[in-house]
Amino acid sequence: MLDERLVQITPSERQIAIQETEYYTFLHFGMNSVTGREWGTGKEDVSLFNPTRLHTDEWCEIIRKSGSKGIILTVKHHDGFCLFPSQYTEHCIKNTPYREGKGDIVKELSDSCKKYGLKFGIYLSPWDRHEPTYGKNAYNDYYVRQLEELLGGAYGKIFCVWLDGARGKDAEVEEDFRYDFERIYKTVRTLQPEAVISVMGPDVRWIGNESAKPRNNEWSVVPASSKNAENIAKNSQTSEEDVKKLSSLDEMQEDLGSYEKVKDVRELVWYPAEADVSIRKGWFYHPEQKPKNVRQLLKIYYNTVGRNAMLLLNVPPDGDGKIDARDEQVLTAFGKRIADIYRNPVDRDFVQKNNEWELRWDTPKKIKHLVLQEDIRYSQRVESFSVYFLTKFGKIRWKQYGVIGYKRIVKIPSFLPLCGIGIHVTATRGEVFLKSMIAYQKIR
Question: Is the pTM of this model over 0.85?
Answer without folding.
Answer: yes
